[in-house]
Amino acid sequence: xKTSSIAYMAVTAGFLSALLLxxxxxxxxxxxxxxxxxxxxxxxxxxxxxxxxxINRFTDRFLPNPWGRTRPQLFIIWGIGVxxxxxxxxxxxx
Length: 94
Hints:
mainly alpha
């Protein structure tokens, strides 16, 4: 398995685990996980974009992608949003 695929699965799994923690009223733990996922997605933006483009190449046979290639800026913006959401959970603003 490629490094980009492992990074993509790790960031996605971290995000989903933070959602489950938030639904079980463990807001501080969910906030910490979300901040970690946000920072990781910012630092690993190129690997995540590469993995997303691999997924798009595989699914283009069945579902054509009208948007073209995924760029790393998408994961940087997503990481900033997720990190801010985690920070707000840590500070009990949500």
